[in-house]
Amino acid sequence: MTERNEKLVQFPQQSSRDVLTEVLRDGARQLLARAIEAEVDEYVTAHAATVDDAGRRCVVRNGHLPTRAIQTPLGDVGITQPRVRDRRPLGDRETFRSSILPPYLRKTSSLDELYPWLYLKGISTGGFNDALQALLGPDARGLSATTITRLKAVWEQEYDGWSTRSLAQRRYAYVWADGVYFNVRLADTDNKRQCILVVMGATREGTKELIAITDGYRESEQSWRELLLDVQARGLTIDPELAIGDGALGFWAAVRKVFPQTREQRCWVHKTANVLNKMPKGVQPKAKAMLQAIWMAETKAAADTAFDLVVATFHAKYPAATACLEQDRDVLLTFYDFPAEHWIHIRTTNPIESTFATVRLRTTRTKGSGSRRACLTMVFKLALAAQKTWRALNSCQLIAAVIDGVPFVDGMRKDAA
Prior knowledge:
The protein is of the alpha+beta class. The protein contains 16 helices and eleven strands. The radius of gyration is 29 Å and the shape is elongated.
């Protein structure tokens, strides 16, 4: 009979995730160290011709500075930076400053973006330590309540300066507007869910940028009007060519009074959702495809035909759905009077929606009542961080034509249509 020898093998307790994180962290440490070494070598080489009376180089390497821990999304990364010694006369000396690793840097900018995100997700300042350890590992250094308070104070000052900046030199072809709700509980019993009003615009160069962020009472006309009047008072006196928003009546009423020459485009994503909500689920896939055929049509005439087909198909059984669609017929098709290359950008409020998608739908709330000022500041920081990743509009050169009033028919210049 064959004998079986059994041997108990001990496997490491460290999880595969921890091992992978350690590998990534070690790789990041090596890459950063090489980059800094190369930067120092380049600096020393550039000063190689500078010598003293004895023919010795004046700018040389001189060991390393103490190891510094940089807090990153991968956890702490220890960096040892080479020291540079400048032996020239005191008045001629220069201090080497790394562009890769600035002095006093203790954490990467991505973590600065993480703190506002945590707050808006419902993590109280007292729970930041646990949250950071869960995200960055058990060795992550948390932030004290004092540090968080100081950070918020700095961000509030940044917001105050940004929200009062001059807009006299700005010109926007398109503006997107939306009211974003967050579940940070407020002390005001009549306005527990804070509404942040956000406006962004497309510049003549084709880039997207934030124009204004403020809080309002729900999405009332008065709140929107105050925001738009403030923007106008700070120098935005020329009406944008087109405003894109959902069906919030307060915004449109305010726009017509403050920027009467601005045309209107309703968001197709919001309109589609509103129409489908008035239909049974079994019908929604078919209706959604038919609605998509409207805004995907190549010409306005084809869109009108598809529009009529939707109304004729569903009016008898679902009159509320077709009424919801028909009430905004004209302003749903405004985009056909603008360059076809821009349609993907101006049919929806997606630029704003996507920015706050990770925080606006959260269910966990902060413990106790939040501060409206803190919530507004955190949204401001989160939006500024997102702005760095916004892509420019397609065919940016057409923005100038839009601003100059060149007519377009079915997305084509009128003289070429």
